[in-house]
Amino acid sequence: MQLIEQTFVVRRLEALLTASESGFRSAFQHFQDALTLAFRKEEEDMVLIGYATRDAHMAEHQKLLQLLWRISARMHYDGAAAGADMVDMLPHCLLEHMIKVDLPLQQALGSSSAYLPR
């Protein structure tokens, strides 16, 4: 994720973590949408530069998306409060993703910036 995308996703996460029970579903959907859009952009960047470890990084995307799916399923079956109990795992998972995926990708993008369209 680029810095702007990271900031947007983190803001959505903050809104989710502080959402009232009545606003939780909406905040969760906004966070999920923001993360999905950021991942799509990240995947486009990886394809554009022919990123060597793309498959490993896509697996990291899947871990985070699976957690979102589990939270969504829990909310569907057990209510918003049950989903809210699992949201505490998101900051750690998102930070781990940024370290494992975003930093190496940013380094690769920086070294191949001559190949990127302007």
Which stretches are poorly predicted, pLDDT < 50 over at least 5 residues? Answer: 114-118
- The CATH first-level class comes to Mainly Alpha
The percentage helix is over 70%
Find the structural class using helix and strand composition.
mainly alpha
Distance between the termini: 18 Å
- Tell me the quaternary state: single chain
The chain-level mean pLDDT equals 80
Major sheet size, sense and barrel closure? none
- The CATH homologous superfamily is termed Hemerythrin-like
Q: Per CATH, which architecture? A: Up-down Bundle
Form type: elongated
Run of helices and strands = HHHHH
Radius of gyration over C-alpha positions, nearest whole angstrom:
15 Å
Number of domains: 1
Please provide the count of β strands: 0
Task: Compute the number of helices.
Answer: 5
The CATH topology annotation reads as Four Helix Bundle (Hemerythrin (Met), subunit A)
Report the portion of residues in β strands: under 5%
Give the helices and strands, then pairings.
Elements: H1 3-17, H2 24-49, H3 54-78, H4 80-86, H5 90-111
Can you describe this structure?
This protein is mainly α. It has one domain: Up-down Bundle (Four Helix Bundle (Hemerythrin (Met), subunit A)), CATH 1.20.120.50. Helix content is 81%, strand content 0%. It is built from five helices and no strands. The longest helix has 26 residues. It is elongated and about 45 Å long. The two termini are 18 Å apart. The relative contact order is 0.15.
